[in-house]
Amino acid sequence: MYVEFNNMSEDSRVWIYQAARQFTEQEKALIASKLSAFCDGWNTHGTRMPTSFQILDNQILVLVVDESGLGASGCSIDSSVRTLRELESEIENNITDQGKVTFKSSTGEISVASALGIKSKVTSGEINSQTPIINPQVKSKKDLESIWILAGNSWLNRYFPN
Q1: For 60-96, what is each residue's pLDDT tens digit?
Q2: Structural domain total, the chain
Q3: Are 70 and 49 in contact (CB under 8 A)?
Q4: Is 50 found in the same domain as 19?
Q5: Which of 10, 114, 118, 153 is deepest in the core (most CB within 10 A)?
Q6: Are residues 86 and 36 in the same domain?
Q7: What are the tens digits of pLDDT across the range 20-30?
Q8: Residue 74's pLDDT is what?
Q9: pLDDT digits (tens, 9 = 90+) for 106-133
C-alpha cells in the first residue's frame, strides 16, 4: 500500500537507483504515476506492504518499504525491478544498472560514471577526496541523511594518495 514518504518508518528498507541523467518534469510525473500505482499494490506472498518512493536531486530514485510486518521477498523485489525497467525503457534513462558511481562536481552538478572506469575520473582530477558521492551503504530511510559522503570516506579512498 502506498504511504507518503514522510510517513514511512525511519527503519524502512531503501533501495537507491541512480539515473544516468536528470529526469524531466514530464518524466517525474510519469514516474510518480507509475510508482504510486506500483506501491499501492506491492505485496509479498499476498500481503501488501507499506511502500513509498522519492526522487532526490531530480536524478536519484529511492524506493522504500516498511518490512516490520513482513519482509520483502525475492519475488516482490523482482517485481519492483521489472517496474523500474519498464519505466527505464519508456523514458530512455538507465535507472537499474548498479555498476555506476554518482558524484557531484564542484559546481554541484550530478554526474554518473561506470564503476569500472572510476579510477580515470580520480586520476584526471574530476573526482577528489572531497567530492560528494552516493553512499552505497545506505540501507534504511534514516540512513538517507548520509546519502552523500565524501569520496575520501568511501571505497574510492584507495585511489587517493595518503
Answers
A1: 999 999 877 665 545 556 777 888 999 999 999 999 9
A2: 2
A3: yes
A4: yes
A5: 118
A6: yes
A7: 999 999 999 99
A8: 57
A9: 888 999 999 998 999 999 999 999 999 9
Residues 30 and 68 in one domain: yes
Q: 62 forms bridges with which residues in the sheet?
A: 16, 54
Of 151, 125, 38, residue with least CA distance to 61: 38
Q: What local confidence, expressed as pLDDT, does residue 77 receive?
A: 67
Residue indicated by cell numbers 584526471 = 124
SS (H, E, C) the chain: CECCHHHCCCCCEEEEEECCCCCCHHHHHHHHHHHHHHHHHCEECCEECCEEEEEECCCEEEEEECCCCCCCCHHHHHHHHHHHHHHHHHHCCCCCCCCEEEEECCCCCEEEEEHHHHHHHHHCCCCCCCCEEECCCCCEHHHHHHCEEEHHHCHHHHHCCC
Cα–Cα distances in Å, from 162 out to 45, 103, 105, 129?
50, 21, 22, 10
Q: Could you report the per-residue pLDDT of 35-48, keeping only the tens digit for each?
A: 998 888 876 666 77
